[in-house]
Automatic annotation (TrEMBL):
Origin superkingdom: Eukaryota
GO cellular component, one term: cytoplasm
Pfam families: Pkinase
Gene Ontology molecular function, alphabetical: ATP binding; protein serine/threonine kinase activity
Listed name of the protein: Protein kinase domain-containing protein
One BP term from GO: regulation of autophagy
Positions of the Protein kinase domain: 38-320
SMART domains: S_TKc
Amino acid sequence: MVEKKKTLQDRYVIAHPDDRELYQLGESDEFFYVLLKRWSDSELGFGRCGAVVESVRFKKAGTIMYGRVAVKYSHGVDRDGFLLSNERQVLKKVQEKGAHPNIVQMLDWIKKIVVDDTETQPALVLEYIDGWTLDEVCRRWPLSLWVLMDVIVLRWLIQLGNGLKHLHDNNITHGDMKLHNVMISFDGLRVIIIDFGFSTKSEKGHNPDSDMKQLGRMICQLLAYRSRDAAKEFIQDSSLSACKRIVARHGGDFFGYKTKLDGLFDGSMNADGFIACMKGCKHIILERQRRSIPEEHRLRNAIMKDSKLSLKRIYRGANL
């Protein structure tokens, strides 16, 4: 009797006996993708238009290629896959000249994936980001830690501006800039813009004003997390005009009173101007932190010297 040839999945199970429940998700021309956990444990994000699950990929030929990826598929409002297809086209254009460190990288495209034992629309394979969204980071930080982390937040904003600049230089508007669509790696060193379903691209007549206004609203939300007074005003009125007033009133505590961010809301500031403005704020924040009380000064220095200090460790230290 001829022994049946073992598949790559079988060989992986033999090599890793603890991972017996392999669930095949789908395959592309070069790779096939499986879940090593239950579906509920593999879910990374779930929204109105799509969901993201953690997967691993194997190369079809040759040795096993193991690596974590994020597989995004359509459901709900985007059941026909229009937004997902649009995201694929936008990321393809963004990556024509190479990947950008502040924009999520597209790795592959799966023609069909299996969800609940039924084949669904195509799925997008993205790089796996080991981190949290900016919204999750803000919610986890205690209010007392915000003043100590101003320089780190400023570095994140500069990276965010670099990502937007790359998009706008390629005539692409993100269209859905918010705290949920910005991810921070656990080491705190990398900012990644995600979710390009609502992005638009144009060859001429590109207008990035909508992205810059949404960036202004994001800064208003950051100030609301940092200041209770700003939070009260934002809860009462979160319109764009109200955000402009909140940033003008409370932004001086963070950026310095000479820093003007009104251009984010009236269309006069582009990504280059925003990056230059954030870099100009750095010495103001450092000077303010030098005047902090000795205990805050000691903790700030410990955070700034250890560039590999993860966000998890920062939170754990703040809770003691």
